[in-house]
């Protein structure tokens, strides 16, 4: 019988972190390993078996419908479907800048805190003004 290793020793043996080995054990990716008296015993010659998630494993390529092309989104079209106030991430995407820049210039954009958690929102009118609409 091959010698057994602890998760830390096996991690060093295969060049991975101990946390990764423990995750593999929890996910059943080391089928040769055994839990004996609440301690893992991993054979030195154990091989990791990566498994596909069940949702992915059950789907064949032929069963997946091709993606429909996305319609071109314009700023005007997007603003028509959005509420009066827009969250920081959406405002950044529409303006083509980072969310950090939107937060940094929230005062100039007319941003205000909204809701129970005080989320920062930007008025749609400010986005229209910046876009020249």
Automatic annotation (TrEMBL):
Lineage of the species this protein comes from: Bacteria, Bacillati, Actinomycetota, Actinomycetes, Micrococcales
Listed name of the protein: Helix-turn-helix domain-containing protein
């Amino acid at each position: 019988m091959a010698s057994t290793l602890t998760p830390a020793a096996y991690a060093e043996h295969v060049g991975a972190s101990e946390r990764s080995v423990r995750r593999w054990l929890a996910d059943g990716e080391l089928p040769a390993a055994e839990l004996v008296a609440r301690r893992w015993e991993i054979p030195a010659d154990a091989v990791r078996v990566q498994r596909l998630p069940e949702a992915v494993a059950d789907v064949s390529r032929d069963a997946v419908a091709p993606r429909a092309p996305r319609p071109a989104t314009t700023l005007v079209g997007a603003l028509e479907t959005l509420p009066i106030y827009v969250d920081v991430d959406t405002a950044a995407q529409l303006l083509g800048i980072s969310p950090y820049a939107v937060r940094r210039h929230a005062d100039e954009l007319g941003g205000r805190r909204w809701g129970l958690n005080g989320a920062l929102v930007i008025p749609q009118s400010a986005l229209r003004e910046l876009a020249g609409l």
